[in-house]
Amino acid sequence: MEVGFIGLGAMGRAMAANLLKAGHHVRVWNRSRAPADELARLGAEPVREAGMAFGGMVISMLAADDAVREIFLAPGLLESAPPGTLHVNMATISVRFAEWLAAEHRRHGIQYVAAPVFGRPEAVAAGQLNIVAAGDPAAIDRAQPLLDAIGQRTWRLGSEPHQANAVKVAGNFMIAAAIESMAESAVMVERYGVDSADLLKVLTSTLFAAPVYKNYGALIVDRRYEPAAFRLALGLKDMQLVLEAAEGAQTPMPFASVLHDHLLEAVAQGDGERDWAALAEVVRRHAGETTGRHG
Asked: Which of 168, 201, 214, 237 is catalytic?
């Protein structure tokens, strides 16, 4: 299949590479040229402007609402899209913006599917991403061969694109809650002379034998937050999205407020570019420890 790909950060670059490995012809665009040139060596076709990535189908993987708005709502972009274009947006964006974006695509006669993902860059490379998709079932069917090249499973969640975004921000809230709970438990048992590595080895081998607990538990124990696979500053952005979604649904989520404040504190302390497992260092500061700057 021919597909355009817009947004070549760590996740987007790996996704586009998987499409190329699966034999698809991929036109790529990114604000900075280097990632596009890197993918060109794998067979991608770099294009000069975002609109040139459009064709029958385009996938985007951008950082936030503002980046999506800046590119896809630029004057003339959607208006000039070829008839029958399908846009698959894999970014983590707000539920409110997702609703508005879907309406804008409909107004211009463009099919739109939301398909955010769960998994870090290493999961993309290993083909272990889980994709949560929502939109017109026929549009998802059309995109499915591409989604199959990117992830291990596509979970279909409804006919309205914003439903996938609601699930995505809910999932990221649960990940942050897991990081916080592991960090608090680790610091507490250390005060009783128990090695936190032993605590997490027991629990991730029994009650919490899931990738989130195993992977983030190891980062917390080792205090290993660099290089960041998912920057803490993005985690703060996602907690803001959770709180916005909760307000829109009139659903109290008090612990989301706690996580937001802790992530904000971590950013204020200079941890924004570290992996969001560095949320554990906020717990250590609250317990009166000198956190240091571990790698």
From this structure: 168
- Whether 168 sits among the annotated catalytic residues: the reply is yes
Q: SS3 letters for the chain?
A: CEEEEECCCHHHHHHHHHHHHCCCEEEEECCCHHHHHHHHCCCCEECCCHHHHCCCEEEECCCCHHHHHHHHCCCCCCCCCCCCCEEEECCCCCHHHHHHHHHHHHHCCCEEEECCEECCHHHHHCCCCEEEEEECHHHHHHHHHHHHHHCCEEEECCCCCHHHHHHHHHHHHHHHHHHHHHHHHHHHHHCCCCCHHHHHHHHHHCCCCCHHHHHHHHHHHHCCCCCCCCEHHHHHHHHHHHHHHHHHCCCCCHHHHHHHHHHHHHHHCCCCCCEHHHHHHHHHHHCCCCCCCCC
Q: Is the pTM of this model over 0.90?
A: yes
pLDDT, tens digit, 9 for 90 and up, residues 275-288: 999 999 999 999 99
Distance between alpha carbon 266 and the CA centroid of its chain, in Å?
20
Strand pairing category for 130-135 and 111-114 = antiparallel
